[in-house]
TrEMBL record:
Its EC number is 5.2.1.8. One of its GO terms (molecular function) is peptidyl-prolyl cis-trans isomerase activity. This is peptidylprolyl isomerase. It comes from Bombus impatiens. It comes from the Eukaryota. Signal peptide: none annotated. The gene is LOC100741547.
Length: 459
């Protein structure tokens, strides 16, 4: 028996279950559903069938990629279920139809088989590393962005065992400071206030190849979280503040970055220092002392970024941060020294030494720079010795190859003292004449009577 499942109960979408599905779970909005279907007009004329093509159809549920009746009907189906949807024109192709097969204002029937579904893919790479299955939809349309203060309840599960269950408040992007994994943070950027969802998070965005021994989570493990976003406060935007307020907010980020750095939480420190530069990006509105303070904060942020990047061996990024600092302060001792360290780590001692030498011009008693110059010189000498040995071996190898090639070419040349050229065969004498007495006595001497005459015969 068909039942009306249209939101307004206007009879626009009617569903009749042909085969019951398994379990109680149905796909949530955003899920990637996989179905087979056959579509017919009311007179039984078939206009399309994935079964005839033997190609299941896949689409994102409630994203507007299919007709309204499908988004409504498929959302009610369980795995393995087969159902017949009768769809009024306003829930199908309306007055325009879909020529040539579907006429205007056509009521359609779809027999749909629910094969399977996967959660909504929230991973940055769209590779299924973070899947969302909505339990309770949120309200409004606003979602928290990085920096927003979020209040959430987390329940973490691995192999059916709950390993954490807690309320936590944190600024989005700083979850690491209170033990919130990256996958939960990234997913929360798509949550609406009041939303509750189940997340399936692969190791890349969970506990990676280290695991979490205190939770009995092994390396490279996939975990599940049920996350409820109770509420959130939007992050402060630079445009909403005047120049003085921007300076004060930038100072807050700088202090947070320094605290994270002291706790060896370098990734969090980097996020905070980046916020300083982003907050003070535009010069408009900064004058006199305020402009000087702004420039000093940006310079300090770039220098601290360089140091943080060096700590986690992101040496290219460290070099770039130093370059930004040197644009503001071309003779900055710290920027030159840290750029030298970055070049040294990038195996470029011949470039690094120039930065350390510039440091000594500014501060001749900088013992750290003197020591690093010694390191650079040692590495340069070692590289030269290695290159010399490499080239010597290369030249020896080329010489040996040339010698072998010469010997092979000599072996391939015919021996004029042996074989057909040295032994006078009848066919080799001009005119095919018989050998002379002299030729018989001296078989290995080539006679010059090429014209077949008796010239030179009596030599």
């Amino acid at each position: 028996m068909a039942i009306d499942i249209s939101p307004n109960k206007d009879g626009g979408v009617q569903k009749e279950i042909i085969k019951e599905g398994i379990g109680d779970e149905t796909p949530s909005p955003g899920s990637n559903v996989i179905v087979h279907y056959t579509g017919t007009l009311m007179d039984g004329t078939k206009f399309d069938s994935s079964k005839d093509r033997n190609e299941p159809f896949q689409f994102e549920l409630k994203k507007g990629s299919v007709i309204k009746a499908w988004d409504i009907g498929v959302a009610t189906m369980k795995k393995g279920e087969v159902a017949l949807l009768t769809c009024a024109p306003e829930y199908a192709y309306g007055k325009n139809g879909s020529p040539p097969k579907i006429p205007s204002n056509a009521t359609l029937k779809f027999e749909i088989e629910m094969i399977d579904w996967k959660g909504e893919d929230l991973s940055p790479e769209k590779n299924g590393s973070i899947e969302r299955y909505q339990i309770v939809q949120g309200k409004d349309y606003i979602t928290p962005q990085e920096g927003a203060l979020v209040n959430v309840h987390l329940t973490g599960i691995h192999n059916g065992k709950v390993f954490e269950d807690r309320d936590v408040q944190f600024s989005l992007g700083e979850g690491e400071d209170c033990g919130v994994i990256e996958g939960v943070e990234k997913a929360l950027e798509s949550f609406k206030s009041g939303e509750k969802s189940r997340l399936k998070i692969k190791s890349k965005y969970a506990y990676k190849n280290v695991g979490k021994p205190e939770f009995d989570i092994p390396p490279n493990a996939t975990v599940e979280y049920t996350v409820e976003l109770k509420s959130f406060e939007k992050a402060v935007e630079p445009w909403s503040l005047n120049s003085h307020q921007q300076i004060e907010q930038a100072k807050v980020y700088k202090e947070k970055g320094t605290n994270y750095f002291k706790m060896n939480k370098y990734n969090l420190a980097i996020k905070m220092y980046k916020k300083v530069t982003s907050f003070l990006k535009y010069e408009d509105g900064f004058e006199a002392d305020l402009k000087t303070e702004r420039n000093n904060l940006i310079l300090s942020a770039h220098l601290n970024l360089a140091l943080s990047y060096l700590k986690i061996e992101q040496n290219v990024e460290a070099k770039d941060a130093c370059n930004e600092a040197l644009k503001l302060s071309p003779q900055n001792e710290k920027a030159l020294f840290r750029r030298g360290q970055a070049y040294l780590a990038l195996a470029s001692p011949e470039i690094a030494i120039k930065d350390f030498q510039e440091v000594l011009k500014i501060e001749p008693k900088n013992t750290a720079a003197i020591k690093q110059i010694g390191v650079c010189n040692s590495l340069i000498k070692r590289q030269l010795a290695k290159e010399k040995k490499l080239y010597a071996n290369m030249f020896d190898k080329f010489a040996q190859e040339d010698k072998q090639k010469e010997e092979e070419e000599l072996r391939d040349q015919p021996d004029v003292m042996c074989g057909a050229l040295g032994e006078w065969g009848q066919e080799e004498r001009p005119g095919g004449r018989d050998a002379t007495a002299f030729e018989k006595e001296n078989p290995n001497i080539l006679m010059l009577n090429a014209n077949g005459t008796d010239e030179f015969q009596n030599m």
